[in-house]
Amino acid sequence: MRKVWCIADSILSPLGQGSAENLSALLSGRSGIRRYAAGSFGAGHPFCASLFDRNAFDVSEMPLFEQVLLACTRDAVGRSGIDASSPRVRFFLSTTKGDIERIGGHPEDLPLCVPAARWAAALGNPNPPLVVSNACISGLAALLQAQRMLQLGLCDVAVVAGADVHSIFTISGFQSLGALSASPCRPFDVARDGMNLGDGAACLVLCAGEEVPEGAWELVCGAVRNDANHISGPSRTGEGSYNCLRAVLAECSVDELALVSVHGTATRYNDEMESVALFRAGLSELPVCAFKGCFGHTMGAAGILESILCMLALDEGVIPPTPGYADPGVSSPVNVCVASRSTPKRAFVKMLSGFGGCNAAMLFRKNGCA
Fold this sequence. Notes:
Blueprint: E1 4-13, E2 16-17, H1 19-28, E3 34-36, E4 47-50, H2 64-80, E5 89-94, H3 113-122, E6 130-132, H4 138-151, E7 157-164, H5 168-176, E8 197-198, E9 200-208, E10 217-226, H6 239-249, E11 259-261, H7 268-280, E12 287-289, H8 292-295, H9 302-315, E13 318-319, E14 335-336, E15 341-342, E16 347-354, E17 358-366
Parallel strand pairs: 4-8, 5-6, 5-7, 11-12, 11-16, 12-14
Antiparallel strand pairs: 1-2, 1-9, 1-10, 3-4, 7-9, 10-17, 13-15, 16-17
Helix pairs in contact: 1-9, 4-9, 6-7
């Protein structure tokens, strides 16, 4: 089976443009989380989120969602040196809502295939893009789909991008579930009271082959499991997440892992479920990182954005911190990384979970570090 390598990356968020700038923000303690008053974005209650300044964008010609998706992808493609117009290059889009903020005036744009087709065409790619929209695990699910197509020889290069920008639809929806916090979120903390949303886009360019690009990270393996627990609530026993972890841990030893990048939404049941899954998988002592206290929940971008941050941090020999965490508030022990710490290890697992009982995990390893 052909190995799959990451050859370029990019992140675009309210904290900056480019992966390096966003990593610097995380490691230096800067956060994009801001408090918004009731009435902002049509919300009925105050909330905290990391959102782009809408006044900084001209949306008369192109929706904000498509602007940030295109800008982020152009940056990654430019860094990779690939020919995006080649028929052997395939584009993969991860998003949960797409252009949902245009629901009132442009219903023709609502099918996710429409903005996806414009995105690929803007970069000159002749193939229909593949869209992955599977709640919060969309980013890892898209990476896994791209990995499989590369391994099967169905393409030579995969451009995998995730993006979402928030609107009255998502903000009021999560508020109706009582899931949003009016304060900066606190993953795994005893005082956590909900999540923060976040705008953002992230892109990874992947290739396959035995000839390893210098300094490349490998997508070793991934797994998606659905425990069918509830339409919005996670399994109390962490069944789906545990089974994902068990699948990817078959390809590595726990000792070689630097960290687990968890979903870490700071909601009552998600953090509890992940703590149980980590304990059942024998990972309670492994450093755990959650980044939503810095970037918010970037939805379709989350799996890609948070994976890029881990790769770049470990390239510098650093385990990133978990903004907002202070005191343990889950039933199973979790080794949450409070402040940056050094590590010689160059492998990690990324976890995600989402509505409908969907769960995903992926193992990443630096070339030569097996």
